[in-house]
Amino acid sequence: MAEPLGRYVDLKRGTTYRGNLLGKTGPVLLGLASIEPNGGFRRTSLKTYGGDSPASITLEPGDIYVSLKDVTQSGDLLGAVARVPSDVALGRLTQDTVKLVLKPGASADYLYWLLRTPQYRDYCRARATGTTNLGLARDDFLSFPVPEPTQVRQKLVDLLGALDDKIELDRRMNETLEEIARTTFAGFVNRLDRRSGRFGDIASLRRVGVDPAEAVSTTPYIALEHMPRRSIALTDWGTLDGVVSGKSAFEAGSILFGKLRPYFHKAGIAPIAGACSTDILVIEPRSPAWFAFALMHASSDAFVAYADATSSGTKMPRASWKDLASYELSLPTEDQARALDIQIRPLVDRIVHNVHESRTLAELRDALLPKLISGELRVRDAEKAL
């Protein structure tokens, strides 16, 4: 028998904050930007806040919060839920988010995964109010029917948690692998003789166009918003379905670099072959030996700063390949570059492997989520999967 969500939780709404205190020492701000569309914690735009943060609106690892607003018409963030991860010691709500305060006997894990189900997402969209900015009434949110937490549902919650833990483990492993690669590269560069050269000496721009009208609609497509912000691990992409203008082709393992300033001057490794926005440069090493050297330079803070400084345009400044190719650097011999590649390429290959593994696990998780409400999975099947 289902009972309303309000039987299990109370809500505590956050407050406004002062923009000039963003980035100061303090808790991580848990606003709309910290929630993935349709639920989950989002790391790409996290900022700390140095202003007033009362205990009543701060959250610790494991605490759950939701958005009862959405500034888009898709409704992907309306009612979307997130949970503070273990590596965020303290968070602070904003005026757009609310904390779930659990009542005695409520299971945080069960409620969290219940609010990740597509049935719950449909419930929120069906009750959206507003035209420009969407809202979900407090009473509507608390009226969501919560099915009885049966044995099979608890087994399924355990399985969903295990899948999420493995996805998080892959993410952390990729951070470690990239750190090792950067440390290796820094030590390599420090040992080089100062033979001056330019980025264009070791890499070139791949110029192969794709006409979406002639391509398969399921071809992977990478837009600027898919480009990684803090790492070389490119974890997300869409398809060419619905894309109309000409794009650029790339191969699996290509080095991609966003040329639009200020947010997309980042490099990433393509885990698959496909097409990308023409605002993404497809960079190819001049020989396989130069792959690691080119990748580590393209993803370095110095290269990104150079791209920022040389971008031209007023509303949407863009970096040009001509300027990037002129970036000055110290060149090793090709044999030295090959030796570096032998050390770094296996790390990059493992990063790509983890990206694919995490996507497969996420697809399995998303396929299982509807069964949390329907209860169609048998206990035996859930235990076997777990």
Topology, element by element:
Layout: E1 3-4, E2 9-13, E3 28-30, E4 58-59, E5 64-67, E6 69-70, E7 81-83, E8 91-93, E9 97-102, H1 108-114, H2 118-126, E10 134-135, H3 138-142, E11 145-146, H4 151-190, E12 196-198, E13 203-205, E14 209-210, E15 220-222, E16 238-239, E17 247-250, E18 255-258, E19 267-269, E20 274-276, E21 280-285, H5 291-298, H6 301-310, H7 321-325, E22 328-330, H8 334-368, H9 371-374, H10 379-385
Parallel strand pairs: 3-8, 15-20
Antiparallel strand pairs: 1-11, 2-9, 4-8, 5-7, 5-9, 6-10, 12-22, 13-21, 14-17, 15-16, 17-20, 18-19, 18-21
Helix pairs in contact: 4-8, 4-10
Please give a structural write-up:
The protein is of the alpha+beta class and 386 residues long. It has helices at 108-114, 118-126, 138-142, 151-190, 291-298, 301-310, 321-325, 334-368, 371-374, 379-385, and strands at 3-4, 9-13, 28-30, 58-59, 64-67, 69-70, 81-83, 91-93, 97-102, 134-135, 145-146, 196-198, 203-205, 209-210, 220-222, 238-239, 247-250, 255-258, 267-269, 274-276, 280-285, 328-330. It folds into 2 domains: 3-147, DNA methylase specificity domains (Adenine-n6-DNA-methyltransferase TaqI, Chain A, domain 2), CATH 3.90.220; 171-351, Adenine-n6-DNA-methyltransferase TaqI, Chain A, domain 2, CATH 3.90.220. 34% of the residues lie in helices and 18% in strands. Helix 4 runs antiparallel to helix 8 (334-368) and helix 4 runs parallel beside helix 10. The protein is elongated, with a radius of gyration of 23 Å.
